[in-house]
Amino acid sequence: MSYRPFDKLGWITLAAALALRPMAMPHAQPAEHAPDTIDARLLACAACHGPQGQGTDNDYFPRLAGKPAGYLMNQLIAFRDGRRRYPPMNYLLEYIPDAYLQKMADHFAALRPPPPSQPVSDASPALLARGRSLVADGDPA
Length: 141
What we know:
CATH superfamily of the domain at 38-115: Cytochrome c-like domain
Strand content: under 5%
Radius of gyration: 27 Å
């Protein structure tokens, strides 16, 4: 038996489907395209890093806003090329060209949202004083 892509019934089914298609969607609108702006392109970043790159209190999603563009570019390339491993970032950046990564880095470097509010510490005054001393003077011991 020879292979034939369509038999007579197949052609009739295809013709009927094509004939009925306009009736199924008589008022179909053309697909709406998303705006092609840097803000629209970086919505995937906002899901984890915040809408203005302000970061979160989770170490996996650091602040990007205001960091030097060169530093951000280096990190983006490291994720894209697999030198830095975090699967969601590796996946998102896998096929992004350098020029696009540079636009991303420049965009986040130019942002200046206020820092996130810090929670009030419940540490004792003595512990806070010891911490200030360690930061300012170190521990000679």
